[in-house]
Amino acid sequence: MTLAAEHAYLNTRVSVMATRLLEPTAIGPLSRLPLSDLAERFRLSAILDEQHSARARSRAVEQSLIQVLLAELLILVRPMHTAERRLVLDWGGKYALFNLKTLIRGKLHNLDQKEIRDNLFELPEQMRLSEQVSADLFRAENVLELLRQLEAGAHRTIARQAREIYEQQREPFELEAAIDQRYYAGLIRQAMAFTDHHLDPLKRLIGAELDRINLLWLLRFRFSYMLSPSETFYHLVPSMRLLTRDRLLQLVNLESFQGVIDALPPPLDQLLADSRNIVDVQKRIGRYAAGEAYRVLHRTQSAVARALAYLILRERDLLFLFALAQGQILNLPAAAIEIAVELAEPGCHWAGTQAA
Amino acid sequence: MKHVRLLVLTEDLPQASLALADMESFHPDTRPPAESRLDGLPAREYREVFTQASARLEKIAKLIPNEETPYIEEVRVVDFAELQGLNDWLGKVWNETSSYEEDLRRLEDEERLVKEQQAALANFADLNIDLGMLHSKMRFLDFYVGLVPRENLRQLQGAVGLADHILHVYMQEGENAHVVIVGPTGSKEAQLSAVLDAAGFQNLPIPQGLDRNPAELGRDLDAQRLAIAAQRKTLQETLKRWSEPFEGPLLEARRTLMLAEPLVGLDPSIRSAGYLAYLAGWVPARSVERLGARLRESLNHPFQMTVRNPAAEERALVPTVPAESWVLTPFAMLVRQYGVPEYGEVDPTPLFAVTFILMFGSMFGDIGQGAVIALAAWLLRRKLGRFWPFGLMAGLSSMVFGVLFGSLFGVEHLLPALWMSPLSDPLLMMRIALGWGVVFLTLACLLGIYNRLVIRNWSGAVFGHHGIINLIFYLALITGGFNIANAGAFGAVPAGLVIATLAALAWHSWRRQQAPAGEKVLVVVIETLETLIGYVSNTLSFLRVAAFSLNHVALSIAIFTLADMMGAFGHVVTVILGNLFVIVLEGGIVMIQVMRLQYFEGFSRYFSGNGHEFAPLRYRRG
Questions:
Q1: Domain count across chain B
Q2: pTM, whole model, 2 decimals?
Q3: Mean pLDDT by 10 residues, chain B (622 residues)
Q4: Structural domains of chain A, with CATH
Q5: For chain A, which residues lie within 8 Å of any Cβ of chain B, measuring from their own Cβ?
Q6: Which domain CATH number covers B196?
Q7: What CA–CA distance (Å, rounded) separates B555 from B25?
Q8: Do B88 and B136 have their domain in common?
Q9: B258 and B188 in one domain?
Q10: Which residue of B has its CA nearest to A231?
Q11: Is A119 exposed, middle or buried (0-12, 13-18, 19+ CB in 10 A)?
């Protein structure tokens, strides 16, 4: 069977869905649309429900957009083989991990169950933490009990170390960092398990995403949280493309933001030259990762990599939409919304100058 | 089934829920009422508190076991204040109980660490260095000995390198790696400590006197494990003593929660406006009067109960009461694998049971093998639960056909056949199977037509799949086929009927399509062809009934041919093993084939399976 024939349906699906992606030039006109038009165009009726608070409306919009993304994900995984489906479902599994983090934070801050529940995403069955796990976690009455519950499940290793740290420090950073780290390490492991024509495009796609994540985490941990080079390195997930293990070992040892930017490998050195702060870096490397995803979507033969690339780009679009809707719901100034959707350069007021 | 709408005072809700649960005839309808003012959710808070209290009780029960469904001596109302009070009390008990749980877990962790030390000691035994020196920090050397999860190892190796230390793995066991980290003392120690925390590094205390005889050290560690076991025992005894006064109250708490359950179950269907609460549900017609009487007897205040028949558009919402006969229960379980009958739809269970037993027996007719199946079902009745009558009846049916075929464990000359052996006239067997297929399909079509007529789907009953026109076509086709076999010609009347019915179906298909003419022609041709091929192939599908009865005899012949090639002992062994093989393998295959005929040729014609089961509100009585 030829490559095209193997996943003809999936490739067609991805191509049809790809027409929904926003052109870079479409964001500008969208940002000028009033809330009602935005709601009508993207079927976000929750925006218009004046009876609810701004926070509830914003939450409802986020939930609707995530459901759009996950519904499309489920359509795309249907014709896939087991390993392919596992990879794409695990990519979407980040939303189940968001729920896990929400539960941890909720228990940590002693929020009542209703408030925690209101902040959980409704997820399709295939992507939830198992019913028993989420019920047990939800019933836990404090963080220690929650961590004990986690120890009984798939997250037992991170939960045990997190519990020990929590008992000493009472903060969830290590646990959340470990959850994120394992999520990305799991994605790499699954992508690298492919041996056929899917491998190179998947390496390119996930590698670009990891380069983005690693650089942002590195800059944030080193220069915002002031973590040591060794602790920063420990929390990173070496990529198989640009920011490899050796490169990260070298970068975390540098003592300044500019030093790191200057020492980046090509093409990141050119792309990020003159970046003034982390917000700037985030924007530029976000565009780079999106560009790589576009290339995988339009120029590769691997239907799985194309599907994943589409989902990554679609998620980015939906986040832009969410930023537009939320900005208007919260009555933020147009300038702030434009910065959020990368239409405008951040001025010093919005720039996170401490990081720089 | 009737739709019952109740308006009661909100304060009477707990009492009403108990009365409804006690009657076990009220299936809640969760649709909100038409009146927009009835938008309150009076039982929501009750449910939240109940859920939390139940969760607390379950967690406590893991350490202080108590009966899951104690007997309820007195049925009483559990109001919100009582439930809230119980929840608070359970919260306090759980707080205290959880400290015991933490202590038990701490002991577990300590024991795990001692086990790791024992493993490490066995590993250290081969090292030719004085490990006793590792007890005290040295002036120039900073070192750590401990465990780290294996998956964190590689990243940790890089991280300790950045802090100018080296990491050496000296043992890997289970999920953990035993490591030694060594580096110069200095400013980077603090950095390393944070990394080690993040990596889940567990310090492994070096036992005192490590330079002593390893056997002595081993004894020390064994003693530590014994001490931990003793502490655990003491802790469990303390917990038992401490929990004794709670056992009675916890049992009572369980009863209270069981009594509160009905209102929680009703929560999704309760709405309110101020003091007035609304709830609705489905009640079997025969129980409506008793339900009304029970509510009048139980409620302290007046209430309004409105009863009406289900509306046509509500059909999909009306639950179906399942068959309750012990004979039909196992067949109903198999029917439910396909679906639950919609309200008003003919329950296929009795027909399914009769045809299933008939087909299974005819395909697997043998007195001895049938007796084995029936006996096995009887002996395993406890394990099989409500399914055992199925095995018994299948076995008995097999025995009855065994008498007709004269087959006993595959031997056909010991008993005279009441009718004949299938292999003596295979063509007759085929004709009977085809005849059975025609009867079965006709019956299935008639049921399908009836089910549509009941819901006034006239067009579906006449023109739909397996409707009246289809049935006339099928019977005409069969008559024509019969005429060809007997007289050599199809016959004018059957031919006319076949053409007329196909034309009617084509006309109907043409009318309901909204597409260009070319596409319409294509669809009409394909649908007509599909109708023709479908009925012919479905009828031929029943040839398998005869094929398996022949196959059964043929397999027996094969077994006896093999047995005859052996000595006396080998003969007996081959016959026994051969019969077992036939019972397990052929019995299983016949079962699957009968299910296939039932589901595919039968249910797909007349059974939608779109209904849902009647699940009345009830409480656990203990």
A1: 2
A2: 0.67
A3: 91 89 90 79 85 89 84 84 92 88 86 80 65 62 83 88 86 82 76 82 70 71 89 90 88 91 87 88 92 90 92 86 83 90 88 94 94 94 90 95 93 88 90 94 93 87 91 95 91 94 92 86 89 91 92 90 91 93 92 92 87 87 68
A4: 80-193 (1.20.1690)
A5: 113-114, 139, 141, 144-145, 148, 157-158, 160-161, 164-165, 168, 174, 177-178, 181-182, 185, 227-231, 233-236, 245, 248-249, 252-253
A6: 3.30.70.2750
A7: 52
A8: no
A9: no
A10: B195
A11: middle
